[in-house]
Amino acid sequence: MGSDAFEITVNCIKLVLVFLLMVQAVPILVWLERRGSGFIQNRFGPNRVGPLGLMQLLADAVKFLTKEEFSPKAATKLLFYAAPVFALIPGTLGFAAIPLGSPLKWGDYTFAIQGYDIGVGIVFILGVSSLAAYTILMAGWGSGNKYALMGALRASAQTISYELALGLSIVGIIMMYGTFNLSEMIAAQQGTMHFQAFGNTIATSWLPNWGIFYQPLAAVLFFAATFAESNRLPFDLAEGEAELVAGFHTEYGGFKMLLFFIGEYGHMMVASGLMATFFLGGYNIPYTTTEQVYQFFLGFVESANAASALTSLAHFIMFTVKLGIFLWIFIWVRWTLPRFRYDQLMDLGWKTMLPWALANTILSALVIFAVSHSW
Amino acid sequence: MTADSFLFWLLAAVTLVSGLSVVLVSNPIYSALCLAMSMVGISALFATLGAYFIAGVQMIVYAGAVLVLFVMVLMLFDLKTELATFSRGKISGLIKIATVGTLAGFLAGAFSMSIEFMEKPATKTVVAEAGVDMSRNLGTLLFTKYILGFEALGILLLVIAIGVVGLARSKGGTHAKH
């Protein structure tokens, strides 16, 4: 946690801040989702409360908090109440492990702009997000309702199936950067495109050094699999309204429902953050390195502390922009594509994405071996 | 008590209590969920030992995939008969206590006999390695020194997969007539 009281205090505050950041982004995302869907479907969306309908979120929050508290008669009380709380865990833990900005050097201290820096970042994030299946199963079984149970079974089958494609699709990325650590992956994507091949350095000046140019197939597979993992359309069979009422959260209302919402948006944020980290250079500003940005700010302010703080801030804004782009794509796709049929979902997961991810892994391994070997 | 030892005792308590609950709770769903909880506890214990990669893999494979399947299949069953067969009679209770006692005796005996053997490695200090070096060493060991065991396990899993398919088909599979 740190070596002295100041560092420990800052790190503890940081943990809370990252959590609040995630939770506070949810109302904005809900607003964006509703206004965005209105925009896409050529209607207004919520625009009555406050400017642009932004106050709708506060009204919704009050509504959620003051709704009647109830549980169905057939429910298993313990699981029914535990499920929404558990829904927060995967998103929260996962998002806290993603670097949001370049490390802030303040005097002798170095603060990572993230909840905590874990050596095996990506393994940890995959591990905690795989626990999301329990939430859905607990909610579905605990509700004592056949629609909820059907939704939960579908959702967990889907999550397990796509976890394989998700995990395999990034093996190429891990091999390429030779690390599990997200900060090191971001550090490897600085500046313009340059890489070592057959003992020569190949450099271009017109492309940023982003993972998506090295692993385009992995980017497509990973992004598609994260849609399935976060139960978003076109993979939202868990709550297919037409056949299952609302799936695993049929019996939930009020604040318990809101917790599931936060969990789902947390999943989206983790997925978007990982997309940005793996494939779009993380918090790096395109075409620049962290050092260049730091030198740029040193030209404006005198102290090194202030320059480092400004660098971190600029990188944090850059990361937020990239995060926002992916979150918008999540919302965009939701209102563009129809839902899959169940057999199509399983075919896509097992017969299409898994073989392609395997092929990508083997091909990447061969190419990395051939290119790094000095013949 | 230092932070490390506090963490160890807390995680050990969580793992053991949830592990005990697996056999003490009468509802199979709760048993499976408790097993998942103890898997998460074991994974956290690995992390406190510095084996972050193993911790992550433990979480992904056991807690995240294997036990989710357990819970999923359990939820498909009508558990009323299973709950009823969990008897609370005196004779079966005696048998249970006797079984647990025997097992505990075996364990205690095993520990007391192997205590010298177990104390030996304590003199060797283990240096916690960074994530990638650790997993690199693990990979190197798996594919060089322990390659035979690794391949044998692979064949075992293949045999299991074929066996399951064979068993499922021999009864007519999903199209079986009851």
What does it look like?
The complex is a heterodimer of chains A (375) and B (178). Chain A has one domain. The model of chain A has no long low-confidence stretch (mean pLDDT 85). Chain A has 375 residues and is mostly helical. Helices cover 65% and strands 7% of the residues of chain A. Chain A is built from 15 helices and 4 strands. Chain B has a domain of 86 residues: Up-down Bundle (Four Helix Bundle (Hemerythrin (Met), subunit A)). Chain B is globular, with a radius of gyration of 21 Å. Chain B is mostly helical and 178 residues long. Chains A and B meet through α4, α5 and α6 of A and α2, α3 and α7 of B.
Could you please say which CATH topology of the domain at 1-86 in chain B applies here?
Answer: Four Helix Bundle (Hemerythrin (Met), subunit A)
Q: Compute the average pLDDT of chain A.
A: 85
What string gives the helices and strands of chain A in order?
HHHEEHHHHHEEHHHHHHH
Compressed to H and E, one letter per element, the order of chain B equals HHHHHHHH
CATH architecture of the domain at 1-86 in chain B: Up-down Bundle
Low-confidence stretches of chain B: none
Order of strands, main sheet of chain A, comes to 1-2
Determine the fraction of residues in helical runs of chain B and give it as a percent range: over 70%
Distance between the termini of chain A: 46 Å
Main sheet of chain A, how many strands, which sense, barrel?
2 strands, antiparallel
Strand content of chain B: under 5%
Structural class of chain B: mainly alpha
How many extended strands of chain A? 4
Q: Strand count, sense and closure of the main sheet of chain B?
A: none
